[in-house]
Write a structure and sequence with these properties.
This protein has 371 residues and is α/β, with parallel strands linked by helices. It contains 12 helices and 11 strands. It has 2 domains: 222 residues, Type I PLP-dependent aspartate aminotransferase-like (Major domain) (Aspartate Aminotransferase, domain 2, 3-Layer(aba) Sandwich); 123 residues, Aspartate Aminotransferase, domain 1 (Alpha-Beta Complex), CATH 3.90.1150. The structure holds pyridoxal-5'-phosphate.
Length: 371
């Protein structure tokens, strides 16, 4: 049985652009040029403009965007990188992939983003960078992070996979770090129809280095100046992203309208903690994350009503088997663990209909009335 309110209905999201997407794909098929062609070049130009930076380099995924960003800064074995304890594991994996060690820092419990005040005590002689995540669509405290990074001569790098189009102090996410990685995984605010990612930067040297690294370390066919990888933004995905980029701001506005309805109607219901947007931020609501100590029961109740929800994320990276070697145990990052135990993401996407939003609100109210 299909859900009345799916957590995310990507089919309806993309069908709105079906004809334009098919025409874009047709254009690539007919061009006869399938790797690093005109669509990739045009998308890179448009996305750089959108992000308020001079350069964008399209790559194969968000994880690769972060790995290549760190490689371009020469971060490697023996180095440490400050990361949020509360993030998707890909942020940490990028650091490990270059041989460096992720040093987790607890979040601000109000925004769920890395708490700048807790960073200085984690800085050592080995620290090279702060890798900040704009989680759920809200910018981290990027101005303060930049100040801390500058004071300690560290690089600031943004993981902007979840906040395309958000602003901090009026300046776009993806433009604060010396280099920034993003993902266009299908479920993101700007989502491809497959894997895709990009790096954004104002630094020409870094942009050129990443162009070379993504293409076998090759600045020129059959000339290899370093050991690169193959992680090029796919031409077909770039053509699709060019179509969808035109609608991103409109779609983000739709997400904000849905968030407003949730915020107005769920305020004061049960023990719910609702998302808080800092005055210096705009929030593009990649996720609408609520908190309650009755999380699991609420999730089951909503599922019975035909409403899909998800948990972003149920097990923090420090408690994953993949990071057993770092030796962390339960209790090491209590704020992050508390968040993981109490959060629930509600449906929020541009094709969510009004009756569906109402149904989510009414079902949550009904759950807390029954308690
Ligand atoms: C915060 C964050 N960083 C990195 C990634 C990795 O992106 P990708 O799935 O495109 O590799 C994602 C999404 O999956 C993410 O949410």
């Amino acid at each position: 049985m299909s859900l009345k309110v799916p957590f995310l209905d990507l089919k309806s999201v993309n069908l709105r652009f079906r004809d334009e997407i098919l025409r874009a794909i047709e254009g690539v098929v007919d061009s006869g040029w399938y790797i690093l062609g005109d669509s990739v070049a045009r998308f890179e130009e448009e996305y750089a403009k959108f992000s308020g930076v001079r350069f964008c380099v399209g790559v194969g995924s968000g994880l690769d965007a972060l790995i290549l960003s760190l490689r371009a800064l020469d971060i490697a074995r023996g180095d440490e990188v400050i990361v949020p304890a509360n993030t998707y594991i890909a942020t940490w994996l990028a650091v490990s992939a270059v041989g460096a060690v992720p040093i987790p820092v607890e979040p601000d419990p109000e925004t769920y983003n890395i708490d700048p005040e807790r960073i200085p005590e984690k800085i050592t002689r080995k620290t090279k960078a702060i890798l900040a995540v704009n989680l759920y669509g809200q910018p981290a405290d990027l101005a303060t992070l930049k100040q801390i990074a500058d004071e300690h001569k560290l690089f600031l790098v943004e993981d902007n996979a979840q906040a395309h189009g958000a602003l901090h102090k009026g300046k776009p996410t993806g433009s604060w770090g010396i280099v920034n990685g993003t993902s266009f995984y299908p479920g993101k605010n700007l989502g491809a129809l497959g894997d895709a990612g990009a790096v954004t930067t104002d630094n020409q040297e870094i942009a050129e280095r990443i162009r070379i690294l993504r293409n076998y370390g090759s600045p020129k066919k059959y000339v290899h100046i370093e050991q690169g990888i193959n992680s090029r933004l796919d031409e077909m995905q770039a053509a699709i992203l060019l179509v969808k980029l035109k609608y991103l701001e409109q779609d983000n506005r739709k997400r904000q309208e849905i968030a407003k309805i949730y915020l107005e109607n769920l305020n004061g219901v049960g023990d719910l903690i609702l998302p808080v947007t800092k005055p210096e931020n705009t929030h593009v609501y990649h996720q609408f994350v609520i908190r309650t100590k009755f999380r699991d029961a609420l999730r089951d109740f909503l599922a019975e009503q035909g409403i899909g929800t998800l948990i972003h994320y149920p097990i923090p990276p420090h408690l994953q088997k993949a990071y057993k070697s770092l030796g962390y145990t339960k209790g090491d990052f209590p704020i992050t663990e508390e968040i993981a135990d109490t959060i629930l993401s509600l449906p929020i996407y541009p094709t969510l209909e009004h009756w569906q939003i109402e149904m989510v609100v009414e079902s949550i109210k009904a759950f807390f009335k029954r308690l």
